[in-house]
Specification:
This protein is 6% helix and 63% strand. It is elongated. It starts with a helix and ends with a strand.
Length: 415
């Protein structure tokens, strides 16, 4: 039973209460970008990735490579979330701090191929390794609540990693199309928890994630100033297995819905590029199945979206900036009067909360073959809520604040 409760807090983060929502990560099923240039440009990626990293975000553009290219990517994250809970005139505070955590999260190789018998048709091929769902982070927890005044530290490692194989083509350097296939590779997950109170025992977990999917993409160059692109990542089943140090284990099948994106690139002049992107976030279509239940992961959640935009100034050495606004599966609690039970009850609001983020970065052409890109991103979510606690009709108010800082880099080499 203890392990089932942990699972609920970890995975059913939106549908089982606000501790689960904020105790682990804001949205564990948010795909990683794996490209420093794209991250700096407001987390756009369909038309703004670099070189071989297009294998992850738009395989059609592999056919636009002029040379063989390799890319290496890494990141660091840290942040904090805090809850202030007020009831009966008393205020309690709970904090989760995320210490600095560095990680290598992607490698890609891409190469062009020109067909000698058809000058109008060009091909590109690529392969790569990426962290698709990044669950590598540390947490320090502390609380000053009357019945919850202990501390603990938890370290998560790993995530859902994939190998990606793909190819793209272009016709007359105007019409682009491509497809890639992603399958699990070294998708191991582990955690260690250490408690300050001897009442709780330290624990460890180990597990795996498996799942495969296709990415279909296309681009079209309208003219020398405007390019449009689209991407479809197919839905898939994510199989998640975990085992605890006391040999207890659990297994879940999570339905990950498809994701569709539209993008545009504009070049007002040779020194300025603009990017914008829209992505779907179908939270209402996530499902989870295991030995105990089969249900929607986020209850009756409304679907959401992600809007992203960025700019790039310069030629060889460039400055970048951007912003993003996206729905996350975090929900306010609301109370309503159940006439059948003749009392107040609690439920989650169906509208996802919105995360807002700002990005920046630089790109440097070290020499003719070597490039280096860095990025930084800051995102936050704040909201207040008030409801009637249904056990004793008590008025409760909560204040939530969350922020995350992410920095990273990509290095590319063409030959």
């Amino acid at each position: 039973m203890k392990k089932n409760v942990f699972l609920v807090l970890l995975v059913l983060s939106a549908s089982v209460g606000l501790f689960g929502q904020y105790g682990w990560t804001l949205n564990m099923f948010e795909p990683e970008i794996i490209d420093a240039r794209a991250e700096a440009l407001g987390r756009t990626s369909i038309l703004s990735s670099s070189g071989a990293n297009f294998i992850f975000n738009n395989p059609a553009m592999l056919s636009d490579l002029s040379q063989k290219n390799v890319q290496f990517s890494g990141r660091s994250v840290f942040g904090k979330n805090e809850r202030k809970h007020e009831a009966n005139g008393e205020t309690n505070k709970t904090e989760h701090e995320y210490p600095l955590h560095m990680k290598f999260n992607g490698f890609a190789f891409g190469m062009p191929y020109n067909m000698s018998d058809n000058e109008n048709l060009k091909l590109g091929f690529g392969a790569g390794f990426r962290t698709y769902y990044d669950l590598g982070f540390n947490i320090h927890y502390e609380s000053d609540e009357e019945n919850d005044n202990y501390e603990w530290d938890k370290k998560f490692h790993g995530g859902f990693n994939t190998l990606v194989l793909g190819s793209g083509f272009n016709y007359k350097e105007k019409f682009f199309g491509g497809v890639s296939f992603s399958f699990p590779f070294l998708s191991n997950i582990s955690s260690e928890t250490k408690y300050s109170d001897d009442y709780y025992e330290d624990d460890e977990t180990e597990g795996t994630m498996t799942g495969s999917f296709f990415t279909l993409s296309g681009s079209y160059i309208l003219n020398e100033n405007i390019t449009i692109g689209a991407r479809l990542r197919t839905s898939f089943e994510l199989e998640w297995e975990m085992e605890y140090d006391d040999e207890d284990d659990w297994e879940n099948d999570i339905t990950i819905p498809s994701e569709f994106g539209l993008a545009i690139e504009m070049k007002p002049n040779r020194n300025l590029k603009l990017y914008a992107e829209y992505l779907t976030r179908n939270f209402g279509d996530f499902e989870i199945e295991n030995y105990y239940f089969d249900q929607d992961l986020y209850g009756d959640s409304d679907n959401g979206y992600s809007l992203r935009a960025g700019f790039e100034v310069g030629t060889n050495n460039v400055f970048r900036g951007g912003l993003f606004i996206q729905s996350v599966p975090i929900y306010e609690m609301e109370s309503y009067y159940n006439e059948n039970w003749e009392e107040w009850e609690l439920r989650n609001d169906e509208k996802p909360q919105t995360e807002i983020g700002f990005t920046t970065g630089f790109g440097m052409k070290i020499n003719q073959n070597l490039s280096f890109d860095i990025f930084g991103a800051y995102s936050f979510l704040d909201f207040d809520e008030s409801y009637v606690y249904y056990y004793d009709d008590e008025q409760v108010s909560n204040e939530y604040s969350f922020y995350k800082i992410k920095i990273g880099c990509s290095m590319g080499y063409s030959f």
